[in-house]
Design brief:
Layout (H helix, E strand, L loop, with lengths): L2 E12 L2 E13 L4 E5 L6 H8 L7 E6 L2 E2 L5 H9 L1 E4 L11 H6 L8 H9 L3 H11 L17 H15 L3 E5 L7 H14 L4 E5 L3 H7 L2 E6 L2 E7 L5 H15 L1
Parallel strand pairs: 3-8, 3-9, 6-7, 7-8
Antiparallel strand pairs: 1-2, 1-4, 4-5, 9-10
Bound molecules: adenosine-5'-diphosphate (ADP).
Length: about 250
């Protein structure tokens, strides 16, 4: 078991009051599982991913990672947990003035001190360069290692973000609508790439494209209004379930 969430709630507290983004979420994810999160905008998918990568803590309930309750961990242990979890965001957030290779190298930063990080980016050790080059290869960017990130296309930048996660070599890969800002043609290509390079890892991804989620994932978790409304094998996701999941949005749009 990688994740075990029991009765998890998360409240954002702001000046305008509290927003209950998640409530009563109970979810288990086993090692090697591929799970798609579906749901309308504002459902709580990103918040759930931020709890899973230990950026946020539950306001209520318990969240354990590999059998350890995250709320019981000190900051050093929490950092060690975060290194085992790689996240890919909708926008790749590369450093524009650094090369593809240097950006991929940033996947190692979580395990280094600030001094070592700075030195590694200026004068990288041969083994680190080898690791970064090895990660650029499966994403099809070997020929672009020396190109600056801001000279790359959106699809290429997202490939560098995938390479950065490969350099990090995490146990779990989380993805938050990773292809939502790309051309539809590129989406399928990059989804297949992400699947191939994370083959033996646990993958939890909030997906924008329902068809793609149903085709590629084993398990689909529907989230709406901060709650898990279904958790079924992809083959059991019916048009009725999807209609209920997105119903509120359809009504608003109509
Ligand atoms: P999704 O990823 O499914 O679109 P989110 O997890 O981003 O949903 O948001 C869930 C709810 O929490 C929404 O009502 C959203 O407005 C709110 N929310 C998200 N982030 C914050 C924040 N930093 N502060 C306050 N409210 C937030």
């Amino acid at each position: 078991m990688i994740y075990d969430l029991r009765g998890v709630a998360h409240l954002y507290r702001g000046r305008a009051g509290a927003v209950r983004a998640l409530d009563e979420v109970t979810l288990r994810v086993s090692r090697g599982e591929r799970v798609a999160l579906l749901g309308p905008s504002g459902a709580g998918k990103s918040t759930l991913l931020r709890l899973l990568n230990a950026t946020l803590r539950p306001t209520r309930g318990a969240l354990s990672f590999e059998g350890r309750d995250l709320s019981a961990l000190g900051s050093g242990e929490l950092r060690a947990v975060r290194r085992r979890i790689g996240t890919i965001f909708q926008h790749p957030s590369l450093v524009p003035s650094l090369t593809a290779l240097q950006n991929a190298l940033c996947g190692r930063l979580g395990s280094w001190s600030l001094l070592r990080s700075l030195r590694a980016l200026v004068v990288p050790a041969r083994e680190d360069v080898r690791a970064a080059l090895a990660a650029l290869e499966p994403v099809g960017l070997s020929g672009k290692a020396a190109a600056r990130a801001d000279e790359l296309s959106g699809g290429q930048q997202q490939r560098v973000a995938i390479a950065r996660v490969l350099v990090q070599d995490p146990e779990v890969v989380l993805a938050d609508e990773p292809f939502a800002s790309l051309d539809p043609g590129l989406t399928v290509q990059l989804a297949d790439l992400l699947f191939a390079v994370t083959e033996r890892r646990t993958l939890v991804a909030a997906m924008h494209d329902v068809d793609l989620a149903l085709q590629r994932f084993q398990r689909v978790v529907g989230v709406r209004g901060g709650r898990v409304v279904f958790d079924v094998p992809a083959a059991e996701v019916s048009p009725e379930l999807l209609q209920q999941l997105y119903a509120r949005e359809a009504r608003r749009a109509g």
